Write a sequence for this structure.
């Protein structure tokens, strides 16, 4: 496995380091004051595909995402296309060998390498595409706890298989879809087919706009005089007479691309068009070989023009009279968009994906899958009616310019990424806080610790309940909506510490006047927080993490401060052992962000060990808090003055309510 970071791939200076009271090894791990953290200021996106050749389809898309505020890493099997695309798009790249076909030992090795890579890169979002990368990368991303996981369904390979292989591929696709938060279908017919095959539920299958993975650069394929001149040169190079009709094909030479039917249809029309040529751009693949007779025909017939693989086929479309795509299955065939952008009609099979790309009778013709005779008739019809061919080419180009420009598709993808990151509280450049196995370990520790805590603190909680009831009456508990994991609200539990005393105008008295002696004692030692052990058991909180704040504060956070919602909020946290009531709100938020970026079980243990001594520290008690610590003006969000409160941001500075 090799990883290359190219110029401009990562950007953004880190924020100022947090200052605080983490001691021992934690202090050594924490950055010192006035130094910068090497932290991403932008969300980190990783695109993972199986074959290096597939990366060509991401040209322009990757640079667009980078310009839209994302850091991007491109990953595929080794190949010249990977390095070329990464260099052109100015993004980071990494290579991991992956076999396209099923290979148990090779797949296991690839999975291990992908998992290690994800653990090191810690992306905010991982988008896997193509079957093998979707399966191996999806499982690795799930185990690594990547915050946002997308599986791009470029097509449904199992459509052209049968027997045991079909069953294996079906389950592989279902696992890939299950490991992803969303399945991005490149066409509406792919989405319909995925629903029919029960690969994923409808609410997780999404399509951007009219479909397509990357759209098409219309100007790149436009029939300009320069490209027409290049096409004339190509005809001379391959000995194609200037008036000879040319049927073109661009893609892999495999059985499921309909190469066998294409050869038969071409051979059938030569009685009517003896000068016709079949121009093939691509190369043979061993995974799904074409019929032997078709291969011999391609390699020996003088009417077949084998061009080979061409990185930029723009000029070759101007050689063709039409594009043929007698495929058995597709996702959304980019070659159809390219041919349409070049002003050429398309004859395609009525297969998944192809039915989205070709408007039958408008931009081309659709024929039944596997029907060589119908394919030949479609070729003949277009060649006999050049005015129809021109009209179809014009209609196809107009449709591409309206619905399928690269900018439209890329903007839709960037908007989707931003929305999904926001939904998970990661609008800033958040790395995955930890791997899935570690998250499971943290949750297990929470359950064990909260259960033991409820048992040990039970008598103290009972005594506190009696004291509250005796001095303030019922209710004993105070409930309040707080923002938890991914910004979702939950009902936080605390012991009541204030009365509901009001003045003559029925307005609540200031907090310090409503705080009872029992309440002051409970807050002094943090006893009022003990009911939150129940929140931990319910999975709404963790023992250690950023303290849960009011939901009203959500719009006021900076992108970096939104990192706090990438993990469950905690009973105690980094800021609680680093100043608790005396540090500014902005400093506490920075400590919480630092915690998310450097989380480990060891760090949780160190914070937990320092919590009790911190509670016993008189200098950091509730009564000593400076009312000016709210340097962010959060009280204004609640319509209250900026000064005069003795409360911390984790407590509502206004009245308590049951």
């Amino acid at each position: 496995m090799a990883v290359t970071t190219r110029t401009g791939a990562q950007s953004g200076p880190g924020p100022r380091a947090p200052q605080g009271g983490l001691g021992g090894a934690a202090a050594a791990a924490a950055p010192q004051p006035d130094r910068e953290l090497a932290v991403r200021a932008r969300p980190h996106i990783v695109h993972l595909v199986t074959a290096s050749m597939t990366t060509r389809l991401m040209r322009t898309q990757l640079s667009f995402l980078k310009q839209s505020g994302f850091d991007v890493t491109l990953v595929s099997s080794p190949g010249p296309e990977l390095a070329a695309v990464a260099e052109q798009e100015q993004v980071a790249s990494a290579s991991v060998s992956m076999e396209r076909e099923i290979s148990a030992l090779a797949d296991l090795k690839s999975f291990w390498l992908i998992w290690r890579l994800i653990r090191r890169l810690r992306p905010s979002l991982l988008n896997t595409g193509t079957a093998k990368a979707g399966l191996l990368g999806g499982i690795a991303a799930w185990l690594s706890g990547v915050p946002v996981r997308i599986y791009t369904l470029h097509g449904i390979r199992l459509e052209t298989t049968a027997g045991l292989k079909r069953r294996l591929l079906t389950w592989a696709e279902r696992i890939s879809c299950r490991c992803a938060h969303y399945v991005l279908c490149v066409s509406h017919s792919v989405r319909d087919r995925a629903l029919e095959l029960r690969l994923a539920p409808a609410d997780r299958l999404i399509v951007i706009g009219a479909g397509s993975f990357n759209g098409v650069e219309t100007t790149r394929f436009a029939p300009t005089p320069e490209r027409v001149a290049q096409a004339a040169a190509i005809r001379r190079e391959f000995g194609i007479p200037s008036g000879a009709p040319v049927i073109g094909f661009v893609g892999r030479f495999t059985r499921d691309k309909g190469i066998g039917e294409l050869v038969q249809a071409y051979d059938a029309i030569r009685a009517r068009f003896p000068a016709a040529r079949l121009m093939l751009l691509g190369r043979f693949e061993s995974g799904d070989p074409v019929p032997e007779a078709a291969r011999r025909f391609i390699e020996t017939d003088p009417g077949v023009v084998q061009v080979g693989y061409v990185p930029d086929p723009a000029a070759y479309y101007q050689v063709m009279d039409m594009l043929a795509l007698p495929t058995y299955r597709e996702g959304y065939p980019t070659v159809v968009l390219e041919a349409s952008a070049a002003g050429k009609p398309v004859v395609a099979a009525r297969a998944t994906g192809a039915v989205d790309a070709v408007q039958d009778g408008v931009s081309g013709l659709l024929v039944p899958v596997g029907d060589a005779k119908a394919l030949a008739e479609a070729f003949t019809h277009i060649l006999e009616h050049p005015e129809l061919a021109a009209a179809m080419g014009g209609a196809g180009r107009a449709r591409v310019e309206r619905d399928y420009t690269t900018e439209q598709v890329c903007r839709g993808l960037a908007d989707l990424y931003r929305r999904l990151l926001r939904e998970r509280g990661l609008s800033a450049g958040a790395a995955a806080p930890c791997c899935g196995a570690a998250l499971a370990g943290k949750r297990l520790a929470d359950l064990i610790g909260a259960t033991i805590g409820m048992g040990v603190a039970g008598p103290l909680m009972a005594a506190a309940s009696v004291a509250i009831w005796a001095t303030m009456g019922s209710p004993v508990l105070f409930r309040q909506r707080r923002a938890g994991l991914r910004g979702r609200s939950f009902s936080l539990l605390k012991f009541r510490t204030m009365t509901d005393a009001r003045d003559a105008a029925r307005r609540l008295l200031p907090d310090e006047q409503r705080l009872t002696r029992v309440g002051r004692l409970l807050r002094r030692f943090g006893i009022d927080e003990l009911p939150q052990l129940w929140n931990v058991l319910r999975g709404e909180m963790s023992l250690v993490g950023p303290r849960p704040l009011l939901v009203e504060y959500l719009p006021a956070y900076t992108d970096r401060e939104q990192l706090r919602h990438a993990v469950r909020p905690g009973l105690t946290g980094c800021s609680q052992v680093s100043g608790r009531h005396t540090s500014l709100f902005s400093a506490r938020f920075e400590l919480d962000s630092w915690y998310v970026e450097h989380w480990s079980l060891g760090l949780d243990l160190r914070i937990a060990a320092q919590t009790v001594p911190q509670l016993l520290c008189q200098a950091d008690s509730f009564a000593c808090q400076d009312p000016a610590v709210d340097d962010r003006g959060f009280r204004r969000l609640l319509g209250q003055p900026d000064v005069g409160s003795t409360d911390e941001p984790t407590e509502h500075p206004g009245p308590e309510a049951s």
Observations:
- The mean pLDDT is 85.
- The chain has three domains: 2-215+408-423, 219-401, 436-637.
